[in-house]
Amino acid sequence: MGMSQYDVIIIGGGAAGLSAALVLSRARRKVLVVDAGAPRNATAAHMHGYLSRDGLPPGELLAVGRKEVQHYGGEIVDGLAGDSRTGFDVTLAGGQCLSARRVLVTTGLRDELPDIPGLRQRWARDVLHCPYCHGHEVRDRQLGVLGGTPGAVRYAHIVRQWTHDLVYFTPPATLTDAERTQLTVRAVGIVEGTVEQLVVDDDQLRGVLMSDGCVVPRDALFVPPTFVPTGHLLAAIGCDTDQDGWATTDPTGRTSVPGVWAAGNVVDPRAQVITAAGAGSAAAIALNADLVDDDVRIAVAGYEQES
Q1: By C-alpha distance, which of 274, 65, 123, 286 is closest to 146?
Q2: Can you tell me which residues the record assigns to a coiled coil (predicted)?
Q3: Which label site among 26, 184, 243, 265 has the fewest CB atoms less than 10 Å from its CB?
């Protein structure tokens, strides 16, 4: 590949990155997608709520997307991108240096889970985080919510939409009187104490073991995870972030660093797959317009030099 000059290098080949690559390659831009191959939803068997693709395994969406991008001449390489100090030189893990007029970062986020034995192993199977992705599949079953974090009570009320049998697990002395009343009037069971571990039998979640030895039978457990942006590249480039460490962008994905854009879960923790794809598309259209402005400026400067 040598020291190729691309119009846009996209770092991250998930829904946001591939969607942007599709729009840009169709706009006759020279595009490279660098993908580390570790999508956040890899453990999920099916993706839901994506119009026309409901129930599709996530890996299939990416495989189809890659083919579409390559069909229009977009290039995809597997590998990690190192720091892009200027935002325009991207170093691959193998040491190759590539340059681009613009960079789009779509590296996503990772879900940090509480340190409870059994949780990580059951992740995206019967330990779930997104009721919109998985609630329908476990509807009317015995569900639990692991509470105690800010916003967890509200999250439990949302999960309640899918079942009449919901238990809210929370450390002692964390509920306000108002929260306790809200849960009680909606028939949400409250279990106060320390969760010791999950009870799994025959590869199925059976219940939640409390530190007092009591087991609360449950079929699935919803856990509001802590979202951590995979945003080390954005930080290295020096993009402005909010108080929680998320890079800030304008509505089209433009960061505070000229020429650097970001889209999808790396800037929006609440984005579903379909939302991330939409954000990638919007960023691509804005990026192309920005490149056109650049093309006009360069052409005018060249013309004025000649005349």
Answers
A1: 123
A2: none
A3: 243
